[in-house]
Design the sequence.
C-alpha cells in the first residue's frame, strides 16, 4: 500500500536520505519512513518548507515530469524594498542561467507581502544589515528549474535571503514547523494536488 507524507524541510537539510558531507538529511528527521518512500522533487539545502515524500511511483512521475506543470508557491524574503516594477519584471519572465545556457523564465504571479509573514524563526537567522532593508514577496510558478526563484529575484535586482515553499497546488504547508512530518491519505494527496488517480 502506498503512503504519502508532507514535511517541513528545515534550512540546511538535504532533500534526500543519503549522506553528503556534513549536511543533515531526511534520515535525521524524527520519523520512521517506509524504505520505499522517497522525495517528490527537491528543495535546495538553503531553502525550506513543503517537501513531499511518497512510495507512489505514478504520483512521483506526474509531479517530476516537466510535461505536467503544477503550481508551487513560495515566500521569499529579498534584500531591499522590492517595488511593483521589479515584481512585474519577474512575472513577465527574466533571463536566467540554467546549466550554462540562457533561459527566460515562464510567466508567473508575484505579489508583495505588506506585513512580515508569520513564519517560524530560521536557524541560523538570516543575516541582518541595518543599512539594507528587506521585504517579502509571494511567487507562484509552474516550473521548477535549479535555484530558479533565487535566480529570478536576483535578475530583478533583489537577491533572495530566505526562501520557503508554502504550497504545491492546494497542498499547503499550513502551520507546520521545521522538521514536522505529517502523513496524509492517498485521496487527500491526489485531490489537493489536482491529480486524477
Sequence:
Amino acid at each position: 500500500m502506498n503512503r504519502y507524507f508532507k514535511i517541513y524541510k528545515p534550512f540546511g537539510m538535504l532533500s534526500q536520505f543519503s549522506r553528503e558531507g556534513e549536511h543533515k538529511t531526511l534520515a535525521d528527521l524524527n520519523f520512521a519512513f517506509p524504505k520505499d518512500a522517497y522525495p517528490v522533487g527537491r528543495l535546495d539545502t538553503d531553502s525550506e518548507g513543503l517537501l513531499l515524500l511518497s512510495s507512489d511511483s505514478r504520483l512521483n512521475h506526474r509531479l517530476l515530469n516537466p510535461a505536467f506543470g503544477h503550481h508551487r508557491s513560495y515566500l521569499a524574503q529579498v534584500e531591499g524594498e522590492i517595488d511593483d516594477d521589479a515584481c512585474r519584471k519577474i512575472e513577465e519572465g527574466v533571463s536566467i542561467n540554467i546549466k550554462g545556457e540562457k533561459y527566460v523564465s515562464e510567466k508567473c504571479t508575484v505579489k508583495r507581502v505588506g506585513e512580515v509573514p508569520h513564519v517560524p524563526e530560521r536557524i541560523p537567522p538570516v543575516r541582518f544589515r541595518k543599512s539594507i532593508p528587506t521585504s517579502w514577496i509571494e511567487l507562484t510558478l509552474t516550473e521548477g528549474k535549479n535555484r530558479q526563484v533565487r535566480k529570478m529575484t536576483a535578475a530583478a535586482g533583489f537577491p533572495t535571503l530566505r526562501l520557503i515553499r508554502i504550497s504545491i497546488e492546494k497542498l499547503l504547508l499550513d502551520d507546520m514547523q521545521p522538521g514536522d512530518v505529517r502523513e496524509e491519505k492517498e485521496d487527500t494527496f491526489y485531490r489537493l494536488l489536482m491529480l486524477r488517480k
